[in-house]
UniProtKB/TrEMBL annotation:
Protein name (record): 2-dehydro-3-deoxy-phosphogluconate aldolase
Lyase listed as a keyword: yes
Family: Belongs to the KHG/KDPG aldolase family.
Top EC class, one word: lyase
Catalytic activity: 2-dehydro-3-deoxy-6-phospho-D-gluconate = D-glyceraldehyde 3-phosphate + pyruvate
Keywords noted in UniProt: Carbohydrate metabolism, Lyase, Schiff base
Length: 207
């Protein structure tokens, strides 16, 4: 996971309501400079949307999100995705992921969950729900005893605070849906979304 995300600082979290949005949305994000995309498996449109993005959007690196069960792992493999992200983890999920050819980033919200994940060999975790679970101060505190662990905080992050996370040495990237505001998506305003992606990719956060 760390290799795959080496050049990535922001992962847009996409929840597709309409299959036909998938390609123009992904193009807007990639053109704006955000190439690594997490498409959550929360909606009926997700699988077909992912298929279309993989077939039609050059340069996109596509992973699945909300990966919670072995069936989600299987679907991620069948779709040909490049990575999987989970908001948490279970023994069953990690057992399935261990057999999969693509990496999983499990989610944690506490130190003990993280230590359990480390027992499975993981060093990179989603920190979810980042803001609600304590945000930047928690990640700073964890860096003391666990300096080698890296995080992708997600949940409640936006233009106003994403840079605070990215300044932390134990944060490799952040994830979030702020680049895809519901009103812009509903109105299919892909140019505006591309602009938001560009602002984000250029680190012009509004402090
Ligand atoms: O679906 C998953 O796998 C999740 O863990 C949840 C998402 O990452 C958050 O819903 C994104 O958070 P927001 O940026 O606050 O919208």
């Amino acid at each position: 996971m760390r290799e795959l995300l080496a050049d990535t600082r922001v992962i847009p979290v996409i929840t597709l309501e309409r299959v036909e949005d998938a390609v123009p949305m992904a193009r807007a994000l990639v053109n704006g400079g955000l190439k690594v995309l997490e498409v959550t498996l929360r909606t009926p449109a997700a699988a077909d949307g992912i298929r279309r993005i993989l077939a039609e959007v050059a340069g996109a690196i596509v992973g699945t999100g909300t990966v919670c069960t072995p069936a989600h792992v299987q679907l991620s493999c069948d779709l040909g995705c490049q990575f999987m992200i989970s908001p948490g983890f279970t023994d069953q999920l990690l057992a399935a992921a261990a057999q999969a050819p693509l990496p999983l980033m499990p989610g944690i919200a506490t130190v003990s969950e993280m230590m359990r994940g480390m027992e499975y060999g993981y060093q990179d975790f989603k920190f979810f729900p980042a803001e609600a679970a304590g945000g930047v101060p928690v990640l700073k505190a964890i860096a003391g005893p666990f300096a080698d662990v890296r995080f992708c905080p997600t949940g409640g992050i936006g233009l106003g605070n994403f840079l605070d996370y990215l300044e932390l040495p134990n944060v490799m990237c952040v994830g979030g849906s702020w680049i895809l505001p519901a009103d812009l998506v509903a109105a299919q305003r892909w140019d505006d979304i591309e602009q938001l992606a560009r602002e984000t990719a250029n680190f012009r956060g509004i402090k």
